[in-house]
Amino acid sequence: MKELQTIGLLTVSNLFMTFAWYGHLKFKDMEWSKSLGLITIVLISWGIALFEYLFQVPANKIGFKENGGPFNLLQLKVIQEAVSITVFLLFTTLLFKTEKIAWNHFVAFVLIIVAVFFAFKKW
């Protein structure tokens, strides 16, 4: 159960993170934001990132082995990166229609999944 809670919270966290980091690039398409300065956009992104932390911190707390969770610190980080790239690929595909995922992007994604495998492999 803690595995699913951790991964679910990391997924929600990464949705907010991706919007905070890259969502502002779509502001140019919205009338209300065309005159916003960089500082304002940074502050909006920080506001969105606050929600990222509201999910990220509990995910790590619940998932961390020393807190009774199932994952060690390295496993948590590798899971977070795999979730992050998955969310980012979906975000890019759905919101930025001009971006195309090429074969090399797919290979990079597969290598990240392989990293997850190795992070969980018992030697």
From TrEMBL:
Q: Which UniProt keywords apply?
A: Membrane, Transmembrane, Transmembrane helix
Entry keyword annotation includes Ribonucleoprotein: no
Q: Where are the transmembrane segments?
A: 7-24, 36-55, 76-96, 102-120
Taxonomy of the source species? Bacteria, Pseudomonadati, Bacteroidota, Sphingobacteriia, Sphingobacteriales
Give the top-rank taxon of the lineage listed in the UniProt record for this protein: Bacteria
Spell out the protein name for this chain. DMT family protein
